[in-house]
Design brief:
binds iron/sulfur cluster, 18 helices, 402 residues, 5 strands, Rossmann fold, two-stranded parallel sheet, 3 domains, binds tryptophan, Tyrosyl-Transfer RNA Synthetase
């Protein structure tokens, strides 16, 4: 515990496209080589908005995993699982709901926005469950004591809520009887050298608010081998005062990659019809790009254009090297090149990017049980981790009676 752990989830509401690849999956690929990672299909989160049409979830969940595997998410490095197959997430959501202030949920900025947006699409999500969406997300994260959560900008307020919930939990339930004595006893168990260093760092943090000292003390606790989980929680909490630190406040890892925009220059999404899917055929990719809108000023081949007003340019920004971009700039503004000519390097680059993904996907498409087994395995691993946290949570909330 208190080890670095990355966790992220996606709602299985549609097949994966290039926007997911550049906006999230590429980042996951880097992370899986740096940290233990948990990646999951948030099927309950999908149900909060799609409860009237749940078949979408079944249709997309397996495709989603095939896409993850096809881009190179490696089940020997990362644990892949399905939220609803680890029902402890639901138990923690309920337990958190008892002390999660209603006002915290109502003021999450995505809430009113999404209610409106879904209403426009004929979905009524003025439900108890949807109000609890970010709380369930908090449970997803806290149940693994994950400290790093890669998400997009739109999810930052959910991570902030998660931090507040963790803090409130520790404040309410980390205060056991005799905490000070138990914490002091745990300090002694560290051995004289480490205990001395711990005390010094704790004092430095408490007296001078020294954040670096806080970090060093946490690391020190992290590295101690012979302590029980409960004692580690005490030592963690004791640095800052309070009580045991049972749940861990996570940090958002913002994905800073320039977002890949859709064929119309808007955010890429399947429902907007502006997406290129990860397993799109080379012919379809070529067709979609050839029929893309360009700068409306270029009515005829001889009319000069401005790449800044053209969605094809967005793709060049992601896919083309400096020379090609220069060639586009020059050629477009002087009517030196035609739009079809301009699009060809993008078609080639996207198809080159997708080729290995398609090939890799084929092996999983041919063998669906392979995917089922990988996920089954991941669900079991996730469940084991969740069980450890839930034992502490139940105990702290007084549910451990005989
Ligand atoms: N709400 C996230 C989204 O829409 C999906 C999600 C659910 C998630 N639980 C999570 C992401 C936990 C990160 C961590 O994208
Ligand atoms: Fe767009 Fe390229 Fe045509 Fe210019 S030449 S309008 S950048 S497609």
């Amino acid at each position: 515990m208190f080890q670095d752990l990355v966790l992220s989830g996606m709602r299985p509401t549609g097949a994966m496209h290039l926007g997911h690849y550049h906006g999230a999956l590429k980042n996951w690929l880097t992370l899986q080589n740096e940290f233990p990672c948990l990646f999951f299909a948030a099927d309950w989160h999908a149900l909060t908005t799609h409860y009237e049409d749940p078949s979408v979830i079944e249709q997309t969940v397996w495709d989603m995993f095939v896409d993850w595997l096809a881009v190179g998410i490696d089940p020997t490095k990362a644990t892949l699982f399905i939220q609803s197959r680890v029902p402890q997430h639901a138990e923690l959501t309920v337990l958190l709901s008892f002390f999660a202030p209603l006002a915290w949920l109502e003021r999450v900025p995505t809430y009113k926005d999404l209610v409106e947006r879904h209403a426009e699409q004929g979905r009524d999500i003025l439900t108890y469950g949807f109000l609890g969406y970010p709380l369930m997300q908090a449970a997803d994260i806290l149940i693994y004591r994950a400290n790093r959560v890669p998400v997009g900008e739109d999810q930052v307020s959910h991570i902030e809520l998660t931090r507040e919930i963790a803090r409130r939990f520790n404040h309410l339930f980390g205060r056991e009887k005799g905490f000070e004595e138990k914490a002091e006893a745990a300090v002694k168990k560290m051995g004289p050298k480490k205990a001395k260093l711990y005390r010094a760092l704790r004092a430095k943090f408490q007296e001078q608010g020294d954040q670096a000292a806080l970090g060093q003390a946490q690391e020190l606790v992290n590295d101690v081998q012979n302590l029980s989980l409960g004692d580690k929680e005490r030592l963690y909490g004791y640095i800052e005062g309070g009580g045991r630190m049972i749940l861990v406040e996570p940090e958002a890892l913002l994905t800073e990659t320039p977002k890949l925009l859709g064929l119309d220059g808007q955010k890429m999404s399947k429902s907007s019809g502006n997406a290129i899917m990860l397993r799109e055929s080379p012919e379809d990719v070529a067709h979609k790009i050839r029929t893309m809108q360009t700068d409306p000023a270029r009515v005829r081949r001889t009319d000069p254009g401005n790449p800044e007003k053209c969605p094809v340019w967005n793709l060049h920004l992601v896919y083309s090297d400096a020379n090609t971009k220069e060639w586009v700039m020059q050629g477009c503004t002087t009517a030196g090149i035609g739009c079809l000519e301009c699009k060809q390097p993008v078609i080639d680059a996207i198809n080159a990017e997708l080729r290995p993904i398609r090939e890799h996907a084929a092996q999983y498409e041919e063998d669906p049980t392979l995917v089922r087994n990988i996920i089954q395995d991941g669900c079991e691993k996730a469940s084991d981790l969740a069980t450890d946290t839930m034992r502490d949570v139940r105990e702290a909330m007084g549910l451990n009676y005989g």
